[in-house]
Amino acid sequence: MTERSFVNTALLGRCYRSGDYVRELPDGALEYAGRRDDQIKIRGFRVEPAEIEIALRQQPGVVRALVLAPKGRDGRRLYAYVEGKTATETLRKQIGELLAGHMVPSRLVVVPEFPVTENGKIDRSRLTEAARRRPEIGELVVPAAPIECQMAAIWCEALDLDSVGVHDNFFDLGGDSMLALAVARRSAMLVNKPGLAPKLLSCITIAKAAEALTGADEYPEVSIDEEEADCPATFGQQGLWALQHLDIANPALVLPFVIRFKGDIALEAIADAIRQLLRHHDTFSLAVRLVEGRIRLCQAEPPIINVEKQVIAEVDLRAFLAGLATKSANSLIRLREVPIEIHLLSTSGNDGVALFMFHHIAVDGSSLPLIVSELVRALEGRPLEGGERAVRSFARWQQACFERSIWNSHKAYWDSQLGSLPDALTLPIDRPRPSRRSGRGMQVEQVLSARSTATVHRLARANSTTPFRVLLGLIGLLAHRLSGQGDVIVATPVSSRHQPSALDAAIGYFVNFLPIRFEFNEALTFSLLMQQVQEKVTAAQVHADFPIELMIRGLETDVAQSLTRLVVAQKLFTGLPQRAGAIELQEIELPRRAAIYELAIFVAETARDITLAWEFDSDLFDSSSIERFQGILDVLLNSAEESPSCPVGRLDLMMPAERAELLDSIDFSIHGTAAHGNLIGLFDEQASANPVAIAVTDSGEV
Q1: Which of 108, 395, 408, 450 has its CA 20 to 30 A from that of 377?
Q2: For 340-483, where are the alpha helices, taking DSSP H only?
């Protein structure tokens, strides 16, 4: 027993932290739900393998089940091993109806009997060997040419297989569309050819993929001179700099991030870990400035750590942090020096708290879990990761691609999509749109019901797509129905960290926006809409290296900003809580009162439900209007499942409460007809009064 395993509580006194998870039943009893140390993360979601094993054991023909999560280059993947007699595809379909999409194993291995060790335990190593064997999908044709061998190595690593053939179908081997995109990009980087990625997505075999290499343009090799301090800013940073200076008083681009260090640790130890972080990553020593008419990255001193002298009472902590955050945001929007402020303070409970204020031009949302990981390494005395000159390397790489016309094929695609822009999206607003946005905003959270969450997963499976893409299509449909516009643009952000590969653990701003253009017509069904989503999002991701900033640079300001009136993004997880030895790092969330865009919807999928955080411009929308949009989206979701072949323009979008209110407001009584009492009597009366009048015509016939 160690001291950190005990905790003092106001209700129960001194308690032992067992690490068990329980759920409270309606009768007050506690049901064991697994252990904290058994949980794993899959694509940012906490997953309990035991829960998947229970679902597997409930299926016919299954005797025992074991779920493992080996870690590969592209993250952890769930592997399920089943003892019994059952068809793999049947079993996958059965558990797919019970579990959330991210909990369905990417590989199912059915064996007659689990192998065991001499001690009678399941021999996991032999099971793992069975999972890595190539499926029996036809004759194995071994790769021969050097490029085929290189491609096969990428496929084997991504699919976790011991061998693949040059004529094997990628999807028959266990691949999916998301993994195919990762493999395409990694293959492009392997041979340094950007033109490969678009072609590879349509090449389902290594043989065809190898042919697609011919004639592709090479990406430039970029090296940074150690003596070179300044360089052009990245195209994304240039866009943010221009946006901030158009709305110089708008604090929405400033991101607060608060970490509580719970345990016996001195503030100086926390400060030392933060200083290591600041020294290691170049984004913390770069200022974005206008130099001779060009926006450049300039070497600057890292931010100092402001240590607050007073100890803050727990009851006052959030209010104190909110006040600090507001004051800091108003300073950072000037972009004079490195746009970062750090405040460190102690609480009455002897915890350390660090308030990081980041302007997005220096740090994007994907950097937050990397910052947490780096702080954990520093506290534990381990070396930090990530390139020390990552931001400047990325900026130089982008500039070289632009100057050498490497992106011509990508530009041609975006020209075809955005060459003639549709009218700006006009959602129903509560107040006139001001000439300049203030940045004031609010958030309204929508937790989908268990029924609606299950519907999203069923639609994803039925259309061979992801829950996020289902919701992206539904939100585009919602915008179409609310605005009446047949041409709708929904923007979604993507990370550019795959270019170059050294950016995997880099901290900075590496974001590009993909405007997805939806086209609606009277014949478009929901099934066809899902096909459109798949095609357009996949194509946009293939061409995501091209900075969208270059497309909108020549547009009028209001036209350029109209591309991001509606933004849909996957919510990024901060990676907290985490432990660094005896210290636990926890996040303190501050209420957000700002909105970067007019309307942004952040989608978060957990093991239990799907949550949509609607962040909106409070100068335009009331929260009641956003809540109405949420209700309509839920109605559209269920209508889409009930009638996938119905034209989307006819799908029901009236909420039950609105329908009831409308029906209650209509007076269905017929006055002055007591003598007849029914429709037939009224018809006879009208015919007697007008005996020669035409009653009905059909195609010109009386």
Answers
A1: 395
A2: 367-379, 390-403, 408-418, 450-462, 467-483
